[in-house]
Fold each of these.
Amino acid sequence: MQINENLGVEYLIYENSALGCLIAIAKPDQKSIKKFWKKFKGKSDVPADAIKGYPLVQDDEQDSLKIDFSVEQEFLIRDLVKFG
């Protein structure tokens, strides 16, 4: 697992409601998420647009969560809920 690979990039935490996990999305990509929800707010037929992010994993040594930069995955925007 790589640590501090992307210094200088701020990440926002989202919960993937379908998978039940937390993911980190780069702050510049948040615009895509906001635009998606603004366009499809209140609609029942939402497309399966995806965005890249990193899962959060449990760090037993520090007893906390950390971003796993070694695994970049795609997540459906419709399943994302801002955490916190």
Amino acid sequence: MSASVESCEHLPRSTLMRGIGLVLLSMVLGGQAHGQAAGTPAPASLTCGTLKGESSRTASTSQWTISGPSGKTTETGTLRSGPRFECIDGAVLVMEFTSSAGHSVFEAYFPDGGNVAYGRQQIDRRGGRIVLPIQAKARIAAPYRAAFDYHCKLNMPADPIEPTARADCIF
């Protein structure tokens, strides 16, 4: 290294520093490009009890499949991120993704074939638990309701919060 620095003594310090900066930048960018896998990435999957979520991504689209006792559903979309799978209480498969338009989606699949879906802005996470709108509780089969906490932030005329349900809200 000292031989190359000595041979650059005739250069102004700013030119030398710029050159070193360009070399470092090319190393960083080259390292990132080198780390990219060629072709299609390996599919991501998660098995959660009787449910299984699988996804794969090409250069422009993502495809995901949810399989369970009630059948198999496959969708394709252009996503900014995801889909990401999570298993709740060993039985509920949760999938989250963000579309290329920036809309985030949360969907929970249940072993009985049911599911609930919300925009990500309607979902909270507190203390390691997922907090859903209280209206979701009635749409979830009794054995799976305890897997979530519930909030009362989403009171809409088409889907009002019943006064008796407010006791189950954590906020």
Amino acid sequence: MKLFKNFFKDRSLGFFIAFAAGVLAVILSFVYLISYLSISAGKMDRVFSILTFLFTLFGGLAILVGELLRIEYVSMVGPILIAVALAKHSVEAAYPIADMGTGVAFFGGNQLFAVLFIVLIGITFLIALVSTFLSHNKQK
């Protein structure tokens, strides 16, 4: 308990926001993987991309490692990787979104998950981005 208390003793708001973004990104990456694998019943959905999963996972891990080891500037790698995941998923989600707009099921793909994960990955990216502009350790 003392180690836990000392670890968080000299941390400021930026650390807690970054830590939350890292944990959220790691959890979100596995929810993304499980969601698409469960709906596709063995075959991949058009919107699913293993790169989106990997970039989100490694972005969250980069944030957590940077914060836990107190390595400056490593936590900035996380939002960059999450931004790449967001861009990749946005490109893949354009197909079912086009189907929603036209009302014709031409491209296929799960429309709900396409939009939902754009929003969730986008929120995770914004939280991680905000944390990069805040101080992570209290000044002595």
